[in-house]
Amino acid sequence: DIYTRFDLQYADSLTQATVAINAKSEGNLIITGSKGYFYVPAPWWKTEYFEARFEDINQNMKYFYKFQGEGLRYEIEEFVRSILNGEKPLSLTVQESLAMAKVFEEFQSAEKIQQF
After folding, report:
1. What is the pLDDT of residue 95?
2. Is the separation of the CB atoms in 41 and 62 below 8 Å?
3. DSSP secondary-structure letter at 58?
4. In angstroms, how far is CA 86 from the centroid of its own chain?
5. Dmax over Cα atoms in the chain, in whole Å?
6. Which of 11, 15, 64, 110 stands 20 to 30 A from 70 (CA)?
7. What is the pLDDT of residue 91?
């Protein structure tokens, strides 16, 4: 898809995401909770800091992390470390992979898809 926005509803939560190829948007990340939310400014995949935000702005907190490069760098690093140390890399389980495939399959066959 060139541009897709989707909502996933669970028993006690809701996820909303937008993904696109060759379409531009702000590119930030927001994880919302019942007491506040986390805000990661664009580009979120090159995170240097994020904020915990609350209704009372005096409670807001900023967290700073200096990452080198993009997230893919850390995936490659984990893969190499697992080879060198003879450890199993952190990866998805078979059940997690099947659950993801099920979500994609349901999305593709959904009757509520609006195409523009």
Report:
1. 85
2. no
3. G
4. 29
5. 50
6. 15
7. 67
SS3 44: helix
DSSP H/E element including 5: strand 3-9
Q: pTM for the complete prediction?
A: 0.56
> Within the chain, which residues score under 70 in pLDDT?
1, 67-75, 89-92, 110-116
User: How many Å apart are CA 96 and CA 93, to the nearest integer?
Assistant: 5
Those residues whose C-beta lies under 8 Å from the C-beta of residue 15, and which sit 6 or more positions away, are 7, 8, 9
Q: What pLDDT does residue 51 have?
A: 93
**What element of type H or E holds 103?**
helix 94-109
Q: Which residue from 8, 11, 47 is spatially nearest to 28, judged by alpha carbons?
A: 47
Question: Distance between CA atoms of 61 and 90, rounded to whole angstroms?
Answer: 30
Q: At 2, phi and psi to the nearest 5?
A: -75, -40
Distance separating alpha carbons of residues 78 and 16, to the nearest angstrom: 29
